[in-house]
Amino acid sequence: MIVEPALEPLQARIRKAVTDGTPLRVRGGGTKDFYGGPHLGDVLETGSYAGIVDYQPTELVITARAGTSLAAIEAAMSARGQMLGFEPPHYGEGATLGGAIASGLSGPRRPYAGAVRDFLLGVRILDGIGQDLAFGGRVMKNVAGFDVSRLMAGALGTLGIITEVSLKCLPCPKAQATLAFECSVGDAIRLASEWGTKPLPVSATCFHQGVLRVRLSGAGPAVDAAIVRMHGETIAVADDYWASLRDHVHIFFADARAAKAPLWRLSVKATAPYADLGGAQLIEWGGALRWLAASAATEPQRVREWSAANGGHATLFHATDKSGGVFQPLTTTTHALHARLKSAFDPHGVLNRGRLYPEF
Q1: Would you say 133 and 163 are in contact if contact means Cβ atoms under 8 Å apart?
Q2: For 301-335, what is each residue's pLDDT tens digit?
Q3: Distance from C-alpha of 253 to C-alpha of 96, rounded to nearest angstrom
Q4: Domains, the chain
Q5: Number of alpha carbons in the 13 Å side-chain half-sphere of residue 11
Q6: I want to staple 345 with a disulfide (CB 3.0 to 4.6 A). Which of 159, 169, 259, 355 is the partner?
């Protein structure tokens, strides 16, 4: 692989960190600094390594450097009638492509279009000893063997510094509409589950304070037919509503921040029954994503146990006190796998030490 001069300073910093035994805190735009474990070590900025490397609209593939802003990528794609299907959260103006992949977070469209990893075609990284490695490619094809590029989605930079990403694109929908239903939380979960089994162009759901909102996206006739079939009330909701949900400026998240309430992210089976876990909830993804603004009555152990019992896991997404851990505890088998991966990609433990789990 040809060495790029722009990467040499980053490689030198990694090698020095290995020699000094000092961890590095990898940082792009900083919009997701709140997420994950504590920040340890010297800051290594990657935001300057930016730019769209290749974009082939007819092939539905875009390749860009990790420091490229999400806004720039989405603007370029929008001009060609395309979008990032996993609807990545920004959480701020400085959001970068590398941060979107490293965090592994997807927006409201995730259960209907796919997660971050489902759109990854290839990545280029610097590993924990400064090697420039590439996995996957720039074309849509089946991957033979283990797809290493997908490991980087959600690894929070603990396995390597992402420098370049190739992603599959999706055409923008021709029509969109939002329906609203006043109902109980139980009915909202039931309805969303039923709709998920039918050929309806649902692209997002949100239940909050007694109202279930449903976004429909697709061809005009399909959206119109779904409105009639679902018997919903069409409401004038701009894209700003779904963007506010994606970027956590929706009133639910604003209230949680104002109250300084710990915010839990519960990923469970869509059909999991509602449970009062102590605190207000907002439900997305057809019931599969439950946001919990914890109250004084919230018991962290109960939150984790309930999530596990309902086929998922709980993440302490945003909190001032993370001493009890951020992510769901690993099983013995999964812990061993994490340890082997960390040893293979970052043998000296210098990259984002402790962001996922204290021992990695």
Answers
A1: no
A2: 999 999 999 999 999 999 999 999 999 999 999 99
A3: 22
A4: 5-171+340-345 (3.30.465.10), 175-246 (3.30.70), 251-318 (3.30.70)
A5: 12
A6: 159
